[in-house]
Batch of 2 targets.
Target 1
Amino acid sequence: MSTFQAPKGTYDLTPPDSAKYLAVRGALAEPLKNSGYGYIETPGFEDVALFARGVGESTDIVSKEMYAFETKGGDKLALRPEGTASVLRAALEANLHKAGNLPVKLWYSGSYYRYERPQKGRYRHFSQVGAEAIGAEDPALDAELIILADQAYRSLGLSQFRILLNSLGDKECRPVYREALQTFLRDLDLDEETRRRIEINPLRVLDDKRPDVQKQLTGAPMLRDFLCDACKAYHEEVRDLLTSAGVVYEDDEKLVRGLDYYTRTTFEFVHDGLGSQSAVGGGGRYDGLSEMIGGPALPSVGWALGVDRTVLALEAEGVELEIPSTTSVYAVPLGEDARRVLFGLVTELRRAGVATDFAFGGRGLKGAMKSANRSGARFTVVAGERDLADGNVQLKDMESGEQEPVALDAVVATVRAKLA
């Protein structure tokens, strides 16, 4: 046993479970690749001020959960707690918005870090696939992203998730609502930290999960009653486009999300089989974020889907992913001469695009065949001195048990034909 273990609240991905996570990541990303989104990758850490400005200093993410540190050179950095601010920073730095093709459509996959109390479905290190469409204010873009996420989940076989939808208004109508909400909240019996939040970002109080707080929120003013005509029309078009696409959603007037930068469309994907950590993904429009971090006005929208939570949702529904074997052919040499010959054959098969493994370690036939069986290989190639003398190898079909001699120089073509 190792002296060291994974840090609290983290996990290791090891075979065979890691194959499931890779399959989920691929499925979440596939609709994006087919819809004009290009891949972007950003550093695992950024200037701490990027998240303080973009995510919001009043959020739990920045005030309580962010891993912040100072480097030997005096730089104040933070492990990224979310992806949007980093992606927008990278797009601005690379001047992608000046290439003349807006929106800039980007997707990404990576690890994120938050210092939270670990529990099932909530980790201090977690994985997400995200998408951002930067530089266009269009209800069709908001609808597109929701539809693509719905498509991704359904491609995995998930059916018991729900889409929650709301509008948070814009800089014209939200200040009026903010003032009305603050007036209401100031009269409630709340702790000091929540009272401080009332003054900084009162909408976040609506997102408080504590039952005693939620009970007091009965009768709170609702943002839908304060939306300006433009925001109402925008939200109605998003709803109409989703309905036309056959995507079922639920209006949730209390949906806020945990980041300060959201405006207008906000949405969340929840799964009722996950207990308290029911959100498997979410996102929304963030029209003012670019200006918050020093860029030009670039209305944008995006989402992030949790890989860990999606895996848990699949398990909750009993969905088994069809994961192909990583090995198609397993080579078993009997003797030193066969070892050299088959090792060369393995290299040829791999160069021909056939997933092939080798019985390393000089094991006997019985042990090597057990390894071949565990590998999931469809075929084994076995050769001893007599086979080599005849210029053949024995090709065994691991499903049917049938075995036949094949000329050494015809193995690659024969195997490829049988796998086609």
Target 2
Amino acid sequence: MTGLPVYRWRLAPDGLATRRQLRAVGLRPGGQDVVAQLERPRGRRGPLVAYLYLVDLAKPVRPMTPKRAAALAKANAARRRCPACRMDAGYVIPPSLGMCTPCAYPEEQCAA
């Protein structure tokens, strides 16, 4: 037991929000602790859990600076580069394959 108040899905009181709800209005938790949690039942599996934060203590989202934008673009470009052929695949390389589709399935490319 976590000791946090638990609310059922869509029944959280006003003044509490999830990270996504805060982000949708331009806010972030800002270092505050989780004050409650939502639980959504899923049948045989365990419930989905979402943590709730106080909207009053939330801080504005930090603005995107040119350096942060450049770092984000560089990180996204690295996710598109195939480690086998070193080419930009044009899409994010799936972690399950670890390489672009032509490198992962070369026999299918020869048949086409």
